[in-house]
Each structure stands twice: as C-alpha cells, then as structure tokens.
Amino acid sequence: MRRKTRIPPSPLPQRHGVDPVRIKLPQGEEWATVREHLVQRLAGAGPGVVDGMLDAGLFVGADGLAVASDTAYVPGMFVWFHRELPDEERVPFALDVVYRDEHIVVADKPHFLATTPRGSHVAETALARLRRELDIPALGAAHRLDRLTAGLVLFTVRPEERGAYQSLFRDRLVRKEYEAVAPYDEELELPRTVRSRILKERGVMAAQEVEGEPNAVTTVELREQRDDHGLYRLTPSTGQTHQLRVHMCALGLPLLGDPLYPTVTGPVPPGDFRRPLQLLARSLEFTDPVTGREHRFRSARALAAWSSYDEWAR
C-alpha cells in the first residue's frame, strides 16, 4: 500500500484572503535543479519570470527559506509562492452572512461573485472576501455556486471538518431549492422531473446533454406566471455543472440573462452587471454532521426580473 505523503503547513501567510500556491516536485523525473522544473512547469508565466522570482526569494521551501536557483531537485519536495494577483473588477454588491457558528458560515452570495479563486477571479471571490472580513484564514468552501448564480453557499470554519460537510453534498443529504425566471409555455405540463446525462468538458464554456445513464435530475415547478414569463422552483437531487440551466433550456425555457444557453454569447464582460442570470439558490436544509443540529436557511435576495418585472419586460 502506498503511504500518503504528509503535506507540511504552508510557510507563507495568505495574501488578500488567498492561499499561496503549493507545488510538489514529482517523482521519476530528471531535473538537476528546482529551477529547471519550475521554468518548465510555469512556462505560461512568460520568459524570465521564474528566474526573477527566484532572484527575489519569492519561492520558499517547507522551512520558509528562499529556494535558490541552484537548489538541487528532490522528488517529493514542496515549494510555495504567491501568484501575481490579476487586476479584478470589484463586484459592487454585498456578501451577506446569514449564519455563523464555530463550525460553519452560510453566506448569501450576490450575482457575478465567484465562490472560490479560479482563473481571473482570485481575491474578488466569496471565499477570499469572507476570510478577510470575518478574519477566518482557514475558512473553506463546502460546495460552489456558479459565478453568475446568486444565493446560499456553505463554508466550513475548521479544515478538519470540511470533509464531513462536503460529504453531505456528495451523498445528496442536502435539500436545495432554487428560483429562476424563464419564459412561460402554457403547453408544457408542470411539475415534472427532468433526467438526463450532462457532460461538461474542460475548457468548453457550455455543458451538453449526451446519451447514456442519467447523472442529473431536476424537479421543475411553476410558482407564478406573468404574461409570457414564469417564476419557477427548481429542486435538483444531483449537482452537475450548469445542471439547472441545461435542463431548463432543454424544456424550451432558457433562463433570463443566461449568456450560454441556448446560445453561447461569450463571457459577461468585467464590470457589466446590468443583466444578472435569473437563478437564485433560495434555500439549504441539512442535518449538521458535526453538531446534529437541523439547519434551514433561506436567501433574502430577490430575482430582479421578477421583483422589477415591468423594467425587465421592456
């Protein structure tokens, strides 16, 4: 049995609520120095960037000491550094905390704010904001919402308990309800349960339904109707990427403000907050795996296309 490598604690503190990058030097490769590996591994940073960082002492080992350009390559060695933070447009909406105890934080995320650092969204994410504002450096996300989706997100306070809360979502022990605004079709019989297989390929913006055993299940109900639009309750029992958006589009009811379904119009430009995706994670219900407490949380947000219907309908 292969022994699990113990990961030492980071010698670098967080910066702006963002963890430093950790690199483990792989086994079975032939590099004479750590520099040679880093230059190859981080080639996307551009010519001379790694050498400049090494000269400035920005790569450190587990002891917190700077890694020199001639440091010998040792398979399994860990190296840390802080990534260069991108210029980010601040999302000008509040991130509200609806519940907090010694184990979890539940936040009501606005549209356009990513849940965790990824790609060009790093410091301007829900996780980084909460770490800074609540002064909880160890805060972690138990699950994620799409950047364009608003609503409730569960975070964990203690790293050693994160797995227990993540398992709630993996094992489908969390009851989630969403609200969405989409076209109304009087010929479509609702409620109904949609089942399909959804595939999301890395590097491809939109997911798609494919043949095969269903891996995505959503119950769709109509709550209210106004003219040719409806307010829908969506209850997923699985959590595939873009599941609700794909299933609603498949029913002929693409969500208002969706830049991907049915037609990919490209990513929403930074700073364009005019037409948020009309999808809201309205409620979360679960039994706390650590305390045994029954939790029921509800978002206080409203979907603009419904609360300000006349304005959106124009």
From TrEMBL:
SUPFAM superfamilies: Pseudouridine synthase
GO biological process: enzyme-directed rRNA pseudouridine synthesis
Organism this protein belongs to: Streptomyces sp. R21
PROSITE patterns listed in its UniProt record: PSI_RLU
Domain Pseudouridine synthase RsuA/RluA-like: start-end pairs: 103-248
GO molecular function: catalytic activity, acting on RNA; pseudouridine synthase activity; RNA binding
Protein origin, superkingdom: Bacteria
Catalytic activity: a uridine in RNA = a pseudouridine in RNA
Stored Pfam families: PseudoU_synth_2
Protein name as annotated: RNA pseudouridylate synthase
